[in-house]
Every structure is written in C-alpha cells, then in structure tokens.
Amino acid sequence: MVRAQLLLHCPDKPGIIAQVTNFITVNKGNIVYLDQYVDHVENIFFMRIEWELDGFLIPKDKIEDYFQTLYAQKYDMSFRIYFTDYKPRMAVFVSKMSHCLYDLLARYTAGEWEVEIPLIVSNHEDLRHVAERFDIPFHCFPVTPDNKAEQEAKEMTLLKEKGVNFIVLARYMQVISEDMIKAYPNRIINIHHSFLPAFVGARPYHAAYARGVKIIGATSHYVTTELDAGPIIEQDVVRITHKDTVADLISKGKDLEKIVLSRAVQKHIERKCLVYKNRTIIFS
Amino acid sequence: MVRAQLLLHCPDKPGIIAQVTNFITVNKGNIVYLDQYVDHVENIFFMRIEWELDGFLIPKDKIEDYFQTLYAQKYDMSFRIYFTDYKPRMAVFVSKMSHCLYDLLARYTAGEWEVEIPLIVSNHEDLRHVAERFDIPFHCFPVTPDNKAEQEAKEMTLLKEKGVNFIVLARYMQVISEDMIKAYPNRIINIHHSFLPAFVGARPYHAAYARGVKIIGATSHYVTTELDAGPIIEQDVVRITHKDTVADLISKGKDLEKIVLSRAVQKHIERKCLVYKNRTIIFS
Amino acid sequence: MVRAQLLLHCPDKPGIIAQVTNFITVNKGNIVYLDQYVDHVENIFFMRIEWELDGFLIPKDKIEDYFQTLYAQKYDMSFRIYFTDYKPRMAVFVSKMSHCLYDLLARYTAGEWEVEIPLIVSNHEDLRHVAERFDIPFHCFPVTPDNKAEQEAKEMTLLKEKGVNFIVLARYMQVISEDMIKAYPNRIINIHHSFLPAFVGARPYHAAYARGVKIIGATSHYVTTELDAGPIIEQDVVRITHKDTVADLISKGKDLEKIVLSRAVQKHIERKCLVYKNRTIIFS
Amino acid sequence: MVRAQLLLHCPDKPGIIAQVTNFITVNKGNIVYLDQYVDHVENIFFMRIEWELDGFLIPKDKIEDYFQTLYAQKYDMSFRIYFTDYKPRMAVFVSKMSHCLYDLLARYTAGEWEVEIPLIVSNHEDLRHVAERFDIPFHCFPVTPDNKAEQEAKEMTLLKEKGVNFIVLARYMQVISEDMIKAYPNRIINIHHSFLPAFVGARPYHAAYARGVKIIGATSHYVTTELDAGPIIEQDVVRITHKDTVADLISKGKDLEKIVLSRAVQKHIERKCLVYKNRTIIFS
Fold it and tell me: Pairing state of beta strands C30-39 and C78-83?
C-alpha cells in the first residue's frame, strides 16, 4: 500500500501537531508513523509523519499543493512530501577500496533497501570487476588536476541522464567540487574514516595512531563545501589498544566504515534525515 | 514554573494526538515536551506530554478529573498525571556493597535529581557509615528465614510513614516478598549484575566466567514476582577477555551496575518509564 | 618470509617462557610475536609465539619433532605448529540469508585473509547466484529428516576431497550432527543471532523482543554437540529501544552477525584461538 | 605476600624475555604476571613482569642495583621497580563539580584501590563538604592571574610534605603551570570532557553540540605542557541524538568522565601505564 511521507520544519507554535495530524485524519489518511522534535534553542519544530494513501480523500498529486496552501504558508514551513512507490536512485562513487561498495551492493541485491542503483562511478578501473559481479553499469572518469572540471561535468550529465537523486561516496578519494555539491545539496553522503571532527583530511588512521587514541571511529555526513565539515548523519567507534598498528587500525576501521555508511544511506533512503543549520535530525 | 506531565496509553485510534494536544493548547497550556509511540503489534498508543501550568485555564487539582471525563473514558485510556512541584520520595535498600549507594547519594547530594531520599534500609549494619556521611536516616532490619515476613511488615510500615513512592534495590541481596511487590507495582527498581535474561539468579559473574562470554552486562528492571524477570528499564555492557578473572568481572561489573541503575532511577524520577505487558516504553 | 606459529598450553611451571623463547633464539629464529597467559585458577600456561624461519637452524619439517622431544614431553604440553606458507581451506555453509556470505566473500575476494574457499555448501539453491558472482563452486545438499545422515556423509566426503580444514556456518539453519562435529573438533564456527547464553535455539530475535531487552547481540562460537553451548570466540551488541519491532531487530542484528562472524573467522585463520575446557583464549 | 613489579623498555633484541624471566626464576622468584609488547615501528621492547618476593634470593633493596648492573646497561633499558607493600600517595585537585571526586572517594573508602589520599586541593571552597564527609584534609588555594605562581608554589610545598607521588585532576578547571608538570612528569592525570583530539580546550560539550556529533566522549591523559595533548590513558564514549541539549550532553558526559578517570587512575595505581613518545602502553 502506498504511503505518503511528509517532512517539515517551521518556527514552533502551539497547535501545529494537532493541525497536521488533523489534516490527515479528517481526510481519512491512516497515520502509521509520527516523530517530532522541538529545538528549544532555535525554537524550531521538526516533524516526520507517514500515512497510508488508500482511501485518502486528496489525490496524490494534489497533496503538496493543498498542504502548501492550507498549512505551510500559515506556519512558515519548509516541507517535502515523498511517496513510497517511488524508489530513489542512488549513484555510488568509488576509487580503489571495495569494502564499502560490497556492503552496499550486498544489501541492494538482497533487496534490503527501497532504492535503485543505476550506476557506479569511479576515477579508477580497479573496482570494475565488482560492478560486473553485480551487473551494474560502471563508468570510469580518470581525474587529474587538469581535467577535473571537465570530468565532473561529464559525470553530472550522466547522473542527470540516469535520473540520480543522491550520491554515495563509498571511499571515493577525491574532493567533490562546489558545482556538484550545489547540484546535490544534502544529497551527497560521504564516509570519513575518523571520528569527526577529530582527524579531518587525509590519512586519519595514521594521525590517530600518532596521537595514541584508545578508540577510533568513522563518520558519515552530507558533503558541503568545507572539507569533512558537513552535517553528521551517523558515527560509530571501536576500541583499540597500543598493540594495534596503523595496518590494524585500517583493518578494524574498514568494518566501521561500511556499517556506518550503510546505516546513513539507509536513513537517507527512508527519508528520515532532515538537515537544519549543519546539524541533522535523524527521525526514529 | 510548574509543569504537568501526562503519561497515557490506550487502543490506537485516529485523532488521539490531535485531541490531546488540542486539549492542552486550547486551554492555554504551553507544550514543552511530547513523545509518542504506537505499538503496531498490540495496536496500542503510548504518549508522554508535558506542559507549563502557568496560565493554564483548568485548575491544577481539576486536570485529572477533566481529562478523565473528556478523553480517558472516550478512548479507554490508562493515564497518570504528575506535577513537577512534587518531588517523588525514594527509599534505597542495600546490603553490604557500597558502589551503587555512593553513586545514588553523590547525585542526590549534588542536586542532580528532583527526588527526596528520606531513608536507607538494610539487612546489615555494614553501610550505616555511608548513610551517616550523607546525613540520611539508616534503618537496619536483619532478615532471617524465620523473621522475614515480620521484618518486611515493619519495613512497609516505615515506608508508609515516610511517604515513600518507590524503592531502589541498590544491590540488596534479598528476594522481595510478594506482599511488598504488590504494594509497589512497577515501583521497585532492581539492578541485576548480568545481561538479562542471561545468568538469572545468584552469582552471575561466576556463571559468566564459566560460560566464557566475551562481554558482561548489567540490567535494571522493575521487580515482579518472578525472579529477575520484570520489565527491563536499562542495560549496558562492557567487553572482557579470557584474561579477566571472576574478581575482574566483579570489579568491571560494579561500574556497569552503578551507571545502569542510576540511569534507570533517573528515567523513573523523570516519569519517562511506562510499563505495558512486561515491556517498558522509555520516553526520550 | 615464512613464519612458524606455535600455540601451546601446559601446566604452569617456572621457566617455560624462558625455555621456549630461548629455543627459538638460540636456533637463530627471529621472534616477531609473543603472547602468553596464565590461568591461575586451572594453573595452566598458554602461549602463542611466532618467528621467522629464514635462517632458522632447524629444518621446517623437523621443528615439530624437535619441539616434542625437547619441551613438550618435559612440560606435558599440548601444542600445534603452523606455517604461514600454508593457507587454511575453509568451507562456507549457508541456507537462504546472504548477508554473512557476502561479507565473507567480499573480504576473501579483496584479499584480506590468508585463506582458500574451495566450496560453498547449502541445503537450498537460493544463494547459488552469490557463489557464481564470486566464482566459487556451490554444492547443494537438500536435507530432510530422512536423508540427513546420508547427505552429511556426502558432504563430508566432498570436504575431504577438497582438503577443507574448517567450516564456517554462515547462518546455516541446520543442526550439525555429532559425526561431523567430531570430524572437525573446534573447527566448525557458527554465528548465533543472540547474546549467548541468552536466547539459545530458534527465533532469538522474537524472544528478545518478547523479553523487552534494551540491547541485542550476536555470538560466534565453535560448534559442540550441545546446541549453542560451544566455546565463544567473539560477541558484540547493539542498542535497541521499545520502538524497534522484531523486523528492526532482525535488520540491526544482521549487521552484528556478519561483523561478529567475520571477526571470529579472522581470528581462527590467524591461528589466534585456543580452546581449553569450553572457553577460548583469543591471543592479541 | 609482597610482590615486585618491574616495568621496562629498551631497543628490541633477541633473548630479552628469556633473560629477564630467567633472572627471576633462577633466583627463585615466582612470576605471577607477565605482559610484553614490541613496537615494530620504533623497534622498542616493552615489558611488565611481577613476581612474589617470598624466597627470592636477592634482597628487596638490592634488586634494582642488581638488575641495573646485570641487564639494564647491557640492553640499554629504562626500567622502574615497584613493590606492592608501598601504597602510592595521590592528591586530588578539584574545582566545583563533585561527580569525579565522589567516584574516586567512594572507591577509596570501599578499599578498592591500593592507594592513599592524604589531601584534596582546590581553588574553591565548594567541595570542602565532600572532603569532610570522607574525613580527608581539604586545602583551598584560590587562584587568580596575579597569585597563580605563588599559590602553585605553596601547593607544591604541601604536596612534598605529604609525600604525594601523583596528582589527579578531577575536573580541576585550571591550567597547570610548567613547573608543576615538570615536577610530576607523567604523574598528573587529567580528565578532559571530550573525545580527544576533538574539542580541545574550554566548553567541549558546547562545541560538540554545535558540530552535531552523534557520539560524545571523555579522555583521561597525562598532563604535558601542551594543553590536552598529553599521552592518552583511557577513553570512552556514549551515543547521543539530536534531541540531546547541551545540558543533556553535560549530564551524560559526567558519567563518562568519572568512569574514564577512575579507570585511568586504577591503571596508574596498578603501575600498568608506561609512556613512550606521547603514547601509552597500557598493560593488561
């Protein structure tokens, strides 16, 4: 049964929950999910609500318009409506390391996620064999300082052709340029192999080893123009000891990276992430 | 500013959230907290909502009555209303180990919790000195198989005199009898030194060592008549290795026990625990 | 450079470390790893030591014999010597769920482990496509109560032909019979989808949900004739809340299962697991 | 029974373990603990070994001399010998927050640690009542920019009088000056309320909230002249969500801080921490 998913935020005022739930109930929608949160510092109300469209009195293609007219302008809301019969289309960008890619594709192939993966993009040929194992088109755009702008332009054309909604950087070892980031605002998900904001930038496991930390982490975040500084979606950590070499950190970190990235991607696919001022609200 | 805290559950039906939030808003209550959850297996709606009473149109002592008449009977609700100007009164039961007791009293003395501790009860004299350090009355009721019923009766009389609302068993090494459990339903909080339901009963660290587990845990739960089988409020774990002796497990476990117990007590004090069919809903 | 790996245990006596390290050093072996542990309850000494064979004065094929004669009989040792130029051969048994299998094969294909996987065995056809994606022979032995003994006999013949040293049950939903367990003592690794010893047997996520636990786990262990009671190699946990349905537990549990199983398999491949009286020593 | 505890490190060479264990065994010492580790990057060997002195042929007060002559100069070792009949003397420095202090004193009073606490030092009067509850002398040295050098000089005189071996900064909100750090090299233990190296300096919970992290941490480290940059002894973390306010982070963080600090102090008391080039080796 198709469901509508509404995400919104607006200045907090009395009565918003009552009004929104009433709108759905009165029009004979069956609410199957509701999570809300008030940021009392910023005085902002956030909500995610999901209802079954079967028997809903407002036609699917009019819901957005009605909601805009009746509530959004009144409460100064930002909102988005999604429908569960549309599968988002996700591009995966990789370089040479396969662990995150395998984890994403294993879930995809097993049908764990409501998503389509129309293509994999890379700056190297190394992982073409993985794409082929899973029968997914693989496009290689080798990037050099000289051709970067040109290659990204080609990538963006291809993404557009393929109807890509969001991008997952599965250990893609290239900085994404501002143009692409602006084309996919809060829709490029990166995995950084440290517990951000510790160890921003290159070689975080080497830096973690040098600092002598007792715990390492991984962080998945939306990409913004400032390196490794975008809104954090998910983090996790694992304990290490003085006995762990840099190679051990890299090995233990791989497991973290793939799990943390996949959790973040899942939340994004489920439309449970909302970004506000460089922080994420992750609905339950 | 005094706030009202309403906890309720009832069969799930459309419109409940709208009605309840509307009831508060229309009567000029400012909602400062709302968390709700639907158990789609049992089809039960759960809610915790909190609002400021300043300017609320219904007098504080009439709220329960109004809510009962207007909503509770209509929706077949179970509900409780609390007010933040009443501090719950908590009795602590201990035997010989001090770690949980110190942790509770340190928080209490530092003013971390909105609670009163009018007394500490024990079956041994060992921890009287701790009670004295914190200037809290200490009552010793030595328990033997012969005098248990009699001593518990005395304890219950004393608890009643002191206006105790709930009891915390801070490593109290005695099984509580059915009478006392019935007098404090879902209001006796125990800490069990294992990851329940593993290692029910006595000497769980010895059992964990014998089984060769790689992680140990602690569990805080409401006491029911079945031993170590009541609704779980909070659990946590810590990693161990083959190098850890039983003494090491006991030592590492102590830190778990006190933190897990204190987290559970805090949730109870904040009226964020709701029990339904031997499971807890822990509001955020 | 080829290295020897010696694992041993024996009654603890003064001087064993000195003697063993001296044996290697005097014969010009370069020790690159040493970990030892004394179980003071059982009074047993455990050790894992690894040295480079380049320039070692005792020929590789005589080391076992010399060590037996010079030390093992003197100290009543149990020991095993492995060499790093021999890759152990691992069979993977699966049923219908793919997550653990993909995780194992992704690591194998990426060259993370010093192991060979000559075959995958299943009682169902469902995962043949996964084996084919990774070019690994897939053998299906449908098992019924009637043909179980016969099918296992065929499986064991096949395992022998393929030179299999150990078996990984990657969510293989069949109880292994005593004959096969005896043929691979402490060499069959299972993943159980609970925090053992809680929730032994079938449908542990349903049981965890019913019990209302706040944390779920996964356990990898060697298979013994008593169900889910063998020596534990690795465990891990993840936090859940009352909002998680059984389906959520299954989904979150999958990530635990694959990581915990892979960690256990890695420790086994590295010859870092030693079993003593139903407990494991996991060398660092 | 009195035991000797030897910690050493030196350039790695064949035969060191054999020689050291042999030295103890030949002289009729019963080894009850041994942990060693080789840093293959720096080529340094680290060892902690513990043996019973009962029947040991070398007199207690000659052991250091013998070991120096026979082994330390030969292998270019740095080493220290401790005896279990000497309890180290620890000063606790506090400001206004009591949670870490209570945790330390509860353990001390319960006899968990082999340590003496001859005094508590503070720059404020706020926690005098805590010291008094536990009958420990409390010395207040109010610090201003003008009198800091003078006050620290008085503190150091007092510490010397009291025979203090090491200092624990239990949320002492003052930067320690270079003179005091040099007087107690790797013997001042601090607790920083973040997951270092993230959020160095003041108000880390505010910074963590602003950055939108999903996990917060605490770090215990030895104090060096660079702020929050000393060798890390222990870290731990706890998961948070977007719902947690700064006040929630502070509250959850307190539990982390006290546990992490106490674990670090315990390792120090047990002489299981060894510092090498700004990293710690934490023996098992």
Answer: unpaired
Provide the pLDDT confidence category of residue A79 given band limits of 50, 70 and 90: very high
Together in a domain, C120 and C259: yes
Same domain, B44 and B170: no
Which residues on chain D are in Cβ contact (under 8 Å) with A37?
A: 242-243
Asked whether residue B32 falls in the same domain as residue B99, the answer is: no
Q: What are phi and psi of B112, to 5 degrees?
A: -70, -25
End position of a domain, from candidates D49, D83, D117: D83
pLDDT at A65: 97
Alpha carbon separation from D202 to D144, D228, D229, D240 (Å, rounded): 18, 10, 14, 20
Count of structural domains within chain C: 2
Mutate to test the interface with B, among A25, A30, A214, A243 (most CBs of B within 10 A): A25
Q: Which of B54, B228, B236, B255 is catalytic?
A: B228
**Could you tell me if A235 and A217 are in contact, meaning their C-beta atoms sit under 8 angstroms apart?**
yes
User: Looking at this predicted complex, what is its ipTM?
Assistant: 0.95
B122 with B232, same domain: the answer is yes
Task: Kindly determine whether residue A195 and residue D211, on different chains, have CB atoms separated by under 8 Å.
Answer: no
Judge whether A255 counts as a catalytic residue: no
Dist. CA B17–CA A192, nearest whole Å: 40
pLDDT band at A231 (very low <50, low <70, confident <90, very high): very high
Helix (H), strand (E) at residue A47: strand A44-52
Which residue range is the domain that position A62 belongs to?
A: 3-83
With pLDDT > 70 as the criterion, what percentage of chain A qualifies? 100
Q: At what angle do helices D246-269 and B246-269 cross, to 10 degrees?
A: 160
Can you give the CATH number for the domain in which C150 is found? 3.40.50.170
How does pLDDT run across D166-200, given as a tens digit for each residue? Answer: 999 999 999 999 999 999 999 999 999 999 999 99
CATH number, domain with residue C23: 3.30.70.260
Q: Are residues B200 and B149 in the same domain?
A: yes
Residue with tokens 């889910």: C228
Q: Do A22 and B15 touch (CB under 8 A)?
A: yes
Please tell me the distance from the alpha carbon of residue C135 to that of residue C128, in angstroms, as a whole number. Answer: 10
Clarify whether residues D44 and D170 are in a common domain: no
| Cα B185 to Cα B223: distance, rounded to the nearest angstrom | 8
User: Are D41 and D180 in a shared domain?
Assistant: no
Q: B34 with B69, same domain? A: yes
d(C-alpha C274, C-alpha C252), whole Å: 30
B19 contacts in A (CB within 8 Å)? 18
The answer, for C14 touching chain D at a CB cutoff of 8 Å, is yes
Q: DSSP class of residue A243?
A: T
Q: Which percentage of chain A shows pLDDT scores above 90?
A: 96
Confidence of residue D164 (pLDDT cuts 50, 70, 90): very high
Strands C188-192 and C215-222: antiparallel
Q: Is C248 on the interface with B (CB under 8 A)?
A: no
pLDDT grade for D14, boundaries at 50, 70 and 90? confident
Predicted pLDDT of residue C18: 87
- Within 8 A by CB and 6+ apart from C90, the residues are C115, C116, C117, C164, C165, C166, C167, C168, C265, C269
Do C15 and D21 make contact, defined as CB atoms within 8 angstroms?
A: yes
For D92-133, write each residue's pLDDT tens digit. Answer: 999 999 999 999 999 999 999 999 999 999 999 999 999 999
Question: What is d(CA B264, CA B266) in angstroms, rounded to the nearest whole number?
Answer: 5
Of D83, D108, D140, at which residue does a domain stop? Answer: D83
CB C188 within 8 A of CB C180: yes
Residue positions counted in chain B: 284
CB contact burial D26-64 (16+ within 10 A = b; e otherwise): eeebbbeebbbbbbeeeebbbbbbbbbbeebebeeeebb
pLDDT of residue B191: 98
